[in-house]
Batch of 2 targets.
Target 1
Amino acid sequence: DAGITQSPRHKVTETGTPVTLRCHQTENHRYMYWYRQDPGHGLRLIHYSYGVKDTDKGEVSDGYSVSRSKTEDFLLTLESATSSQTSVYFCAISSGTNTDTQYFGPGTRLTVL
Amino acid sequence: AQTVTQSQPEMSVQEAETVTLSCTYDTSESDYYLFWYKQPPSRQMILVIRQEAYKQQNATENRFSVNFQKAAKSFSLKISDSQLGDAAMYFCAYWRGGADGLTFGKGTHLIIQP
């Protein structure tokens, strides 16, 4: 299994509060991604990173920001959480080689009340 | 934009039987990857099988195999000798590679009847 951890694994918060989710990898992979999973939608890309301090928006980036100050860590921040951001959040990594695959972390269940 | 369609929200199969899950996709690219991921109740996304579009040979992994039809943009998953542990949501996904994100279908819930 790829060495990917996410923290916290579960979080309950209130509308309007800031929330930061952390993804940590031990594989030294170049690319990292944040997805959200909602019923009826599969997984959708929020943001991705192609290197330290290099990030870009995905399909559903509104209300989210990211940062990557080290190869191994990719942070997802909800500046002011809303109930529509209640979801399961997955981090993924890939190496950028010709045998490339995206491997996923265990997920974080976030509930915004 | 790429799209991935899984037309079977739910499938049921008897243990030890064979089942095929359907997936179609739309893209204008010629080089890409296709995947099937399994998501059991634990929520972990587990890679089942991977196909590179430039390879004509269908990928196989033990009891799992795909039927990749590039011209038809079809990528079905066949599970042989179904086992109770195969019960899960199965997601088909398309990827151009590199920094691009995966595009997922909405999933097929596979039920294994003992």
Target 2
Amino acid sequence: EAGVAQSPRYKIIEKRQSVAFWCNPISGHATLYWYQQILGQGPKLLIQFQNNGVVDDSQLPKDRFSAERLKGVDSTLKIQPAKLEDSAVYLCASRRSSSYEQYFGPGTRLTVT
Amino acid sequence: AQRVTQPEKLLSVFKGAPVELKCNYSYSGSPELFWYVQYSRQRLQLLLRHISRESIKGFTADLNKGETSFHLKKPFAQEEDSAMYYCALSGAPGTYKYIFGTGTRLKVLA
């Protein structure tokens, strides 16, 4: 089966600009996660979707971050406006409802200058 | 508060030597614990889940609730084991919302 796809793989923007990341999960995976991984740290969960509904967004900085998962498949994570501290790798993961295993995408490396 | 601690950022061992990657956790209930691994230029992938008690690629990990630890062990390290290892905790049953540790980079020297 095809893995989790993410695009773009790399993005460089200036602070105060906007950016969007896209994720296509594995077909049939109802649960989708977005993580932020800052250099030297482990991934931190930003938001979890079950189909097209939000299960947990308690760690999403909602003043600047937003995410959606229309039709319960692809998802988009947006940052507007970006800050220097948003420089990180943004990971998308998906999971089948009957399983505990998360499958991760390759990530998008964001650099904010 | 829920927390996962991996005290070593880097662990270097010689090929054939035993390996132990440490993981301690803080959680008030009964957690599920996992080890994920990221090889160079590859995606993060599941290595072990404590409930399954399997041995994957020669690695094992035992949950010690008394010491709140879930250390990853392998009796004889191989060069291909060189990678970044993350310990993860899932608290609320069935949600599989992971809290990751900061990771340990394992380097196996020839």
